Amino acid sequence: MPTTLITNIASLVTNDPSQGDGSPIGLLTDAAVVLDGENVAWVGPAAKAPAADTTYDAENRAVIPGFVDSHSHLVFAGDRTQEFNARMSGRSYSAGGIRTTVAATRAASDEELEANVVRYLAEALRQGTTTFETKSGYGLTTEHEARALRIASAHTDEVTYLGAHIVSPDYAEDPAAYVELVTGEMLDACAPHARWIDVFCEKGAFDGDQARAILTAGKAKGLHPRIHANQLSYGPGVQLAVELDAASADHCTHLTDADVDALAQGDTVATLLPGAEFSTRAEWPDARRLLDAGATVALSTDCNPGSSFTSSVPFCIALAVRDMGMTPDEAIWSATAGGAAALRRDDVGRIAVGARADLALLDAPSHVHLAYRPGVPLVTRVWRRGEPVA
Ligand code: NIG
Ligand code: FE
């Protein structure tokens, strides 16, 4: 395997607390990294770097771990521009809009869905995302959910079965029968293509008992739970997530003190998705409260055509710092190591010997610029599995 030395790094976020300043982001200055094939082989001061087959000069700029976007919904067709326009004229967001995308997605060919996934992944990669999770949830029939997962699994290992996004319009009169489908025939068809099972636990979607039944059935089929919880209102989702040892409770916008305590004490990551609050003009999740209580926080895009049509982790970092009480260091950690924790991965989200060689070079002297210079395309080069890809 040829080795590559990336040197002249003004500031390097390693997320390895044994490096540099000893903070959680393990910040090294005047640093270098050696990539050996798909993995990181060496990290340290540039002056002590070993020789390698090729050298890349970072020209005194910042390098960070590739972003780990642990929550997106990329298998869809159509868009919801009209709904967005209506919201920006004062209408509020509701889960009902999902039906519009379900209709468009069912009508789309495999090729159209595949092309969409490829397009949004390329967009995300250019903005520094090297690991991403994506979900079904816009098919809501056995055939269409399995198709979505098959398409997603050609592009990532982090695939989530979300047959329980809303009750299918075909079952509007009999939600219990839809839960039976989601936990029976649909689950059987979908489980082979997925690693995770998710449910939208919310008024207008699935209640706590239904969510418990769905996640428990998924667990019995070898899927691991994650959950859309406490997005639009207070509810049982977060506590259920912790009880079932879900990897992640996602949104976490409406939390009681008991919810915060549960997240702080359990192993469930609180994944915050500020693109959704931005695009629905909703109240921000309180990252500061979660961090101060000791919860692990991840930051992701929720990229979907309804509530958060952004693939940009840097944009989410800027929002989290400006409006959710996070420091730039906390936000960068949450968008990298935090996302990895939400996917129960330790091979990504950090730059350390043996970790995957997933890195982003910023056209800036430090990672702080991601929040300091919002909206500026600072990601200038991306390595994934050791290969320069964007
Ligand atoms: O995570 N909350 C549920 N699902 C998505 C929105 C889906 C949509 O509106 O199409 C979310 O925000
Ligand atoms: Fe979502």
Automatic annotation (TrEMBL):
Catalytic activity: 4-imidazolone-5-propanoate + H2O = N-formimidoyl-L-glutamate
Record function comment: Catalyzes the hydrolytic cleavage of the carbon-nitrogen bond in imidazolone-5-propanoate to yield N-formimidoyl-L-glutamate. It is the third step in the universal histidine degradation pathway.
Signal peptide (from-to): none
The protein's enzyme class: hydrolase
Binding site for Fe(3+): H71, H73, H228, D302
Lineage: Bacteria, Bacillati, Actinomycetota, Actinomycetes, Kitasatosporales
Family: Belongs to the metallo-dependent hydrolases superfamily. HutI family.
Cofactor(s) named in the record: Zn(2+); Fe(3+)
EC id: 3.5.2.7
Sample GO molecular function, one term: iron ion binding
Gene3D superfamilies tied to this protein: Metal-dependent hydrolases, Urease, subunit C, domain 1
Keyword entries, A-Z: Cytoplasm, Histidine metabolism, Hydrolase, Iron, Metal-binding, Zinc
NCBIfam families given in the database record: hutI
Pathway in which this enzyme or protein is active: Amino-acid degradation; L-histidine degradation into L-glutamate; N-formimidoyl-L-glutamate from L-histidine: step 3/3
GO biological process: L-histidine catabolic process to glutamate and formamide; L-histidine catabolic process to glutamate and formate
Binding site for 4-imidazolone-5-propanoate: R80, Y138, H165, Q231, S307
Protein name: Imidazolonepropionase
Details of cofactor binding: Binds 1 zinc or iron ion per subunit.
Listed Pfam families: Amidohydro_1
Residues reported to bind Zn(2+): H71, H73, H228, D302
The Amidohydrolase-related domain, residue ranges: 63-366
Domain of life: Bacteria
Cellular component annotations (GO), alphabetically ordered: cytoplasm
PANTHER family named among the record's database cross-references: IMIDAZOLONEPROPIONASE, IMIDAZOLONEPROPIONASE-RELATED
Localisation per UniProt entry: Cytoplasm
Binding site for N-formimidoyl-L-glutamate: Y138, N304, G306
